[in-house]
Write a sequence for this structure.
């Protein structure tokens, strides 16, 4: 990504653009923070049944962690880790998982998105499984869509 | 006590919105919109809407600020000074007045007479315990009772992503990034200028 040398930046920054990753405090703090951000996103994802949060919030946090990485270390480094084609496929995968859960419940003799049929013995367990899968679909689509948007915005040159 | 917190939060929201309108420096305005979202998240927390607050903090304060900053990096960080015009002001005031008028018909916060408290809410509360068996009723409503709606929302996010890609992701640089993504080698240490 273009280093943020904007109109209000320090005059010295205009002469030679200072890259984010050359600033040691930013670099070290980011590296220390990112694992926790991603882990927290996963926690929010799977803990949505018990506390606040769920697939959407988890997806946003996960994407935010990756975007932070991209902002500091450069878009090229991020693109190597999360290639654009993979992200685009994941965008659709999440929705397909969600829809697939609905089709699955139809095939097992229930209504569309009626998770109770997933467990023959206890419909409550079926509900748990269905919600987990559906939230996973939401999380994947949100992460991928936000990352794709970030790539689309950040991957353009200034006119 | 809670009332005071709400009053202070609302006052800050008001101050920040006035400042965002008046500021010419768009970078500062972008930061203030992030702050606005964070304060709104605090307000939602005070109103016991924790899931909404979570979303507001993550999307409003976090991600949309990044998107606004990315846009500013492409365009300009300084707003052009324009002559104040009357018509937009009238439209904004009229719309605001209609919205405020609309709130007169809304039930008071936490009022037991509100429609949701009489019809659906009690059903959700008891049914979540029996049929879904998870403590967070919001998740139960979103993912199970209202699963159709959430499927629609996910599709909307997907569609929004596709729309942004179709509008913006056709530049030469994007194709370059695409190529970089395909080569699976580690970023080379010898080229420090990789992020340009």
């Amino acid at each position: 990504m273009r280093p943020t040398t904007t109109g209000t930046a320090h005059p010295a920054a205009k002469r030679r653009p200072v890259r984010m990753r050359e600033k040691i405090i930013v670099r070290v703090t980011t590296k220390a923070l990112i694992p926790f951000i991603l882990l927290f996103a996963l926690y929010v994802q799977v803990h949505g049944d018990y506390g606040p949060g769920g697939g959407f919030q988890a997806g946003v946090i996960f994407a935010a962690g990756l975007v932070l990485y991209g902002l500091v270390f450069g878009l090229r480094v991020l693109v190597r880790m999360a290639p654009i084609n993979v992200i685009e496929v994941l965008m659709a995968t999440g929705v397909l998982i969600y829809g697939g859960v609905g089709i699955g419940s139809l095939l097992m003799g229930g209504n569309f998105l009626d998770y109770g049929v997933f467990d023959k013995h206890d419909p409550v367990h079926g509900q748990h499984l269905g919600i987990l899968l559906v939230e996973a679909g939401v999380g994947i689509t949100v992460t991928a869509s936000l990352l794709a948007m970030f790539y689309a915005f950040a991957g353009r040159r200034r006119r | 006590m809670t009332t005071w917190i709400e009053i202070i939060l609302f006052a800050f929201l008001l101050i920040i919105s006035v400042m965002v309108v008046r500021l010419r420096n768009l970078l500062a305005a972008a930061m203030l919109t992030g702050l606005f979202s964070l304060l709104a998240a605090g307000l939602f927390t005070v109103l016991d809407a924790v899931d909404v607050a979570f979303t507001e903090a993550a999307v409003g304060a976090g991600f949309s600020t990044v998107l606004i900053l990315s846009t500013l990096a492409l365009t300009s960080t300084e707003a052009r000074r324009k002559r104040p015009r009357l018509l937009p002001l009238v439209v904004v005031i009229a719309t605001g007045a209609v919205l405020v008028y609309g709130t007169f018909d809304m039930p008071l916060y936490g009022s037991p007479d509100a429609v949701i408290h009489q019809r659906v809410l009690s059903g959700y509360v008891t049914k979540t315990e029996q049929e879904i068996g998870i403590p967070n009723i919001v998740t139960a409503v979103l993912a199970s009772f209202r699963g159709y709606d959430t499927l629609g929302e996910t599709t909307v996010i997907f569609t929004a992503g596709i729309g942004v890609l179709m509008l913006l992701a056709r530049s030469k640089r994007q194709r370059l990034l695409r190529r970089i993504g395909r080569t699976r080698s580690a970023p080379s240490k010898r080229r420090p200028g990789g992020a340009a």
About this structure: Residues 50-74 of chain B form the longest helix (25 residues).
